Amino acid sequence: MAWVVLFIAGLCEVAWAVGLKYSEGFSKLAPSAFTVTFMVLSFWLLGIALRTLPLGIAYGVWVGIGAIGTAIVSIYLFSEPATLIKLISLLLIVAGIAGLKFAA
């Protein structure tokens, strides 16, 4: 169950990162409220997952999910280039997350 909570926390991290872009430096109310809500939710869920999972593994997986998800969403929403090196680097992060999961 802790892994599911951690995965959802990572998705919330993606949500707040995207919301941060739309908030334009917290100058727009609705995107700013969205961002802060998902920040709190992401940290809260990470805290719940840390009741069971080791800190180093949980934090690494959480950050990895956030980084991969944010990069993919940015390619889709903001037309960021999906270069070969970027995609290979994302695959390496996926490999690192898998390694951390198996290390737990």
Automatic annotation (TrEMBL):
Bilayer topology term: Multi-pass membrane protein
Listed transmembrane segments: 33-50, 57-78, 84-103
Keyword flag Transport: yes
Subcellular location field: Cell membrane
Name under which the protein is recorded: Guanidinium exporter
Protein family according to the UniProt entry: Belongs to the drug/metabolite transporter (DMT) superfamily. Small multidrug resistance (SMR) (TC 2.A.7.1) family. Gdx/SugE subfamily.
Main location: membrane
Keyword Cytoplasm included in the entry's annotation: no
Annotated Pfam families: Multi_Drug_Res (PF00893)
InterPro entries: EmrE-like, Small_drug/metabolite_transptr, Small_multidrug_res
Species of provenance: Vibrio alfacsensis
Keywords: Cell membrane, Membrane, Transmembrane, Transmembrane helix, Transport
Domain of life of the source: Bacteria
